[in-house]
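Readers of this paper often ask what the protein records in our data store actually look like. Such a record has a labelled line for the sequence and another for the backbone structure tokens. Nothing more is needed to write down the fold, since each code stands for a local backbone conformation. The record that follows is passed on verbatim for readers who wish to inspect the format.
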Amino acid sequence: MPGGGLLTGFADEPRQGEDLHAWHVLRPLLDVGGYLPWSTGAMRPAALVLVCNEIVHRGRTRVVECGSGASTVVLARLLRERGAGSVAAVEHDGAWAALVGDLLRREALDGVARVVHAPLRGDPPWYASAALDALPPEIDLLVVDGPPAHLAGEEHRRVPALGFFEPRLVPGATVVLDDLHRPGEREVLARWEAETPWRFLVDEVAGVAVGARG
């Protein structure tokens, strides 16, 4: 899924240290299945721990991800371990959606998690609305790590996410926006706060913003 990428550069030592710690925290969820493909667009371990903590500490059971990948499998493992909840991941790339779906079926996680293939449509590109009709009507944790927004001209692709999902977000829901190290996501966050009642706290080390209404 589009995201923070692999650990690089001595200039990112605080982030590296947090990610190394996060690997240890995530270890119980990484050791229970087979190999997971971590791409350069994968959510960073520190950010994934934050999302897992939302599930454990706040009892989130209706999870939707924009973007799919290793995080989808890890979250599905956690929800199965807890015995309640489901995750639906929206994915624009058909081949990647099929790969992640195969990973879920390989571990019999397809009863807990599913990948919804939703090609990008329109200008600016956003997930095809007909495909998104298959998503749960109520969401208590939304993770915005897609569509891809790392190239020039794509920086604001994630702007529609909050407005689109707002009607499905239950009272007390949490929204997590990934990749806050990029100027584009900072601008997305500024627009959300200027145009909606949602307010966010930025975790600079994990590189995410965590928000709630009001």
